[in-house]
Structures
1.
Amino acid sequence: MKSAANREIISSQLVRIAAELREMELVANASAIDPTILADFRSAVDHARSTAWAVQQRLVARDEQLDVYPILVRERVRRVIELCKALMQDLSSPQTKAEIGAKGLLYNAAKRLCDHLEQV
């Protein structure tokens, strides 16, 4: 009984949050937002989206014992690959030639990732 009640609570919360996000989208399109707050929000939404996707995969598989962590890791790897492709195009464009500092930070992060991948 507790599990059914929890599912109902979670389901109603998801419906409410989805409606709030749609409403926020309309407001956000019409007003100025602090970029830092927006970046934090986007990060939280992206994490929630990935987690929801992994949980959905478990539900579709109808396997309560299925560990969602490996699913999340696979999804993150897929997203990183997509972002790398997009970044290669973006960084080649004339508009980003002046972003030398950002390119240096990206290079250092990518190098750390490559070094770690060689070790695992």
2.
Amino acid sequence: MMKLETNRSLAEELKALGGDAYKCYQCGTCTGDCPVAWLNSEFNPRKLVLFASFGIAEPLKSDIPWLCATCYKCTTRCPRDVKPSEVLSAMRKLAIRDRLAEDKEGAKFIKAFADIVKENGELSETKLVLKLKGLLGSTKMLPLSVAWTMLRKGKISLIEKKSPSAEEVKRIFELAGGGNGRKA
């Protein structure tokens, strides 16, 4: 059995960023109501909240916190107002800040999404898929015949558009710390 290191300062930092894992009495309501946990037995919000309360860093190094759909079902049902979805968000924030998440699919998605919105003022789904999967990888997600039909009908575009409020959106990102998880 692997010994898990506890870290009180990490637990306090997670609490300061969101949710209060210390309130949790491990009833399991969050996991019982979680649609992701129904589909993936590795995803267990109750266990992640327990790890957060003890300051156990292992989840920060894994893909597990990134699986959260952020549906807030766990938060609305929690009898102790722990806010598990916010605890998981705090885990993701620390993983980004401490550069533990750079190779995680969820972190790559969030970074690509934020970069595109910061640059254009709005999301371009085409650019997002190309940035995440590349040209060849994107054809595995969407067959060329389907992509061609969508392109002809105007459902997707290869022409990059900037929102009229792109500069304002860029300023918001800069005020928020540049979209890199750090405050300015």
3.
Amino acid sequence: MKSLISYVLLVSLFITQSYADLNKNKIKNINSYEASFTQSIVNSSGKEILYNGNIYIKQPHKIVWKYNVPIEKLVYINNKIVTIIEPDLEQAIISKLEQEINILKLLKDAVKVKDNLYESRLYDRDYFITIVDNQLIQIKYKDEIDNNVTIDFKDIKQNQALPDDIFKFRIPFHFDIIRK
């Protein structure tokens, strides 16, 4: 669960804070971001799990990850509160963020590796970030249990109006609620 929250938060905050044209040291503010994603997690034995879904982000700090495959999972982030709704388990997990993710530091410390590929280090973890035409296309890293994580984004829409309803959730009355 910590791994899920860690990468969801890192990617989400990366997108909501800003993109960088790292060659020119310019930062472009993003007011909204919408994309579909495929997330691959490969363990040390080579076993791969694929997740697909959509991400919605609206400034200042509204984020929704909607996982569709292989299971439905909804992750809502509003400021420092994370709510994960798992319909198949009939539960919701509500927690507060403990560690601030300094995305500007991640961007400022990024070093160009080759065309469109940058490397950065944050909290003892290396991230490989692919940016094409000022759009985040991919993030790769090893999580805290040494899984290789790759998140690919497509159908990207930036700075377009997103209705506030996307960021509202309702926990069904019969769901278990776990507070951390």
